[in-house]
Amino acid sequence: MADLATWQEAMLAYIRQVRSTQPGWVRFGLPPSRKGRTAIVTDSSASIPAQVVAHPLAKGLRQVPMPVMLGQQIHTEGTPELMRELPLALAAGTSVKTSRPAPGSFSAVYQELAESGFEQIISIHISGQLSGTVEAARLAGREALIPVTVVDSHTTGFTLGTVVLDAVIAAGFGTPADQVLARVDEGSQEAEVFFTVPNLDQLRRGGRIGTMAGLLGTLLNVKPVLTLEDGVVSLVDRPRTTARATERLVELAEEAVQGAGGRKERLAIHGFGNEAAAHELAWRLQHLSALPIPVIPLPAVLAAHLGLGALGVTLNPVPPQRPE
Fold it and tell me: Which residues contact 35 (CB under 8 A, 6 or more apart)?
């Protein structure tokens, strides 16, 4: 496992290694041509830590916050007030809802990027089966000053975040937009996420349980282990204890890595209100990961649906190094 600083240092070393495979002078650290630059936009469900978004190497990245409503009060993702109040609201049973960002939020970001000299934008977002964010981005993209390609990733969390960061790295080295898009599509299809929740109350209230609607009555006394299939929350297993649910996460991660045919995987751990359990899971899985495993708290927009005690593991393959 790793704290975020350690993981970020490992990511910087990984970026240097990727740079060494690039054509031309880029491999020696010189910036690519400013002509044809591609910016990457995502939403806050991608869980990319603020210090990563603020890093100089991420100057072509924007992460649009998603609104969260506690009772009648609307909050913006990432504010200290929301992160303080959300656990209390979940514990008290207060109504917690989420919403897609307004199209105007995307319009403002797209305009700022156009005015900063970028020539096209790839906007990569939470599964359209879970949120209307993709549609809001498409509405804004139609009126943007530069071409905007909106991608439904069919996933969320740091599974999405890793796909986005791979796109940022590729675009930052001057990879043509069509090739960045191909990598995004490939990375989204190959990524996996497994998670467990103490109960299905929050997912049921938010309408995010997909094909499990008919199983609700049989899942009341279990700690379900879930995944995303074609962008929809789906049931994997129904252990009866939290300990067994965590064991299933370990087993599923091991099976995924073993089934990758020797391809290296990058893992990350999500948790909310259970930091010790999240770090323990990261420690148990570190031997499977090509990079140090970061423990990343669930963003509010996901924690609002998964609830206190949610625990998850994301897996993204290391993309092949293909000089263009």
Answer: 119
